[in-house]
Amino acid sequence: MKTRTTSLKRLAAGAGALSLAMVGLISTAATAAPGDDPVVGNIDSGATGSIMVHKHEEHSASEDGNPAGDPIGGVEFTVQEVLLGGSSVPLATAEGWDAIDGLSPGDVPGNGFTLDTGTTAVTDGDGEAPFTGLNVGFYLVTETASGPNLIATPAAPFFVAIPMPTDTGAWDYDVDAYPKNILGDFTPTKTAGDHSQEIREGATALWTIGVPVPAAEFDYESLTISDVIGAGMTFDSWVSVSIDNVALDPDTDYEVSADNSTVTLLGPGLDQLNAITDAQTSANVTAVIRTTIDDIGVLENTATVTLNGKPVDTPSVSTNWGALHLTKVDDGNNDVTLPGAVFELRAADSDGLCNNPGDLIEKSAPTADDGVANFEFFVGNNEDTTRKVCVVETVAPAGYVLPANAVFGPFTIDAASTAEGDVPAATWAADIENHKAEGPNLPLTGSTGTLLFTIVGIALIATGGTIAAVRHSRSKA
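The chain above was modelled as a monomer; its predicted structure follows.
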């Protein structure tokens, strides 16, 4: 009997080591916990055991046998007993160990082996999924659902024998397994639209959020995109949500939160996503949001994408807006402001000069009594915070003339500039002078000449009257 026991131990140790090598993951048949006395000797076929699956972000156990890394909750595992000829594998015999020697998870079912219906368990907050009350036998452990976790590659299926041999030659009926896991990752993007011909009055900005969703073994259970609008802007609308350029239907494929900050994929939208990723192909989810521009300056915005419970922020991007503040003044006295002037705001030419001003950005209404004309307009995105513009005066104030060259600038508008005195931040202020028209001094048109003409005129009128009176008297006589 002693010889049979020794032989059985060797077979068990060899087959156990082989089964662990086949799992393709970092897993150990741990010794019994301190204080527990493992059974030494023949396997007790009537005993029961357990499998504790540990799911953690790291791939291995620490030196003390405990799992390393943060635990992952919500992952589903299924344990099925491997049956030989419809019955449990007889691990209390050498024949039983010989039957499973060299067996891999892909061989089952087949070759006389079948699987029972099995049981499932979900890892808790400590990353543990317990399977208890297991009879002596050979078991297949499979990761069957990722839950609210971004798992790119699930743990490979692996075998566990109850009991498992230990390094001390004892039998361990309560097995701890640490399946290897590859967590997924993704990098969402955000871009701001080009609004180079837009003025701020009534302007809107478009923001595009891109989510590259990696291929996955399991279905994705959730995807949300949140965008809390930054200062200087207000929410306008979610323009569109699409998967691989195929537009999704609002309220059917996705819904928008009551505060308009978040888009959430609904069941039909997730089905469309999973139809792509289940085929081991990545997918691109794109959302476009529109905001109203309420201010000038560098207006920043960041979105957060949460995929299967993993939140990732997009890079912070900005849309930049600036202003040009013009005051029309008399060239002889700059304290005199002039109403009625009209300007065109144009882009600087390709050399950044105003020799040949470019596209029209905005045309002003006539300056008011304070002589002021304001332009607020798009400058650029992100690091592009400056823009050169030109001003063309098209109508001079009443009584004034346009200069020979009515083009002014270039003015460099910096959306990132700070306020100076009465000038708001992101604003360039400038005075534009006009010359008042004055006619030539014609001869005899001054005050002395006018008086002389008046006296002569009165004398002529009086003389004419006297002559007329004399002729009238003679005609009566």
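The first helix runs from residue 2 to 22.
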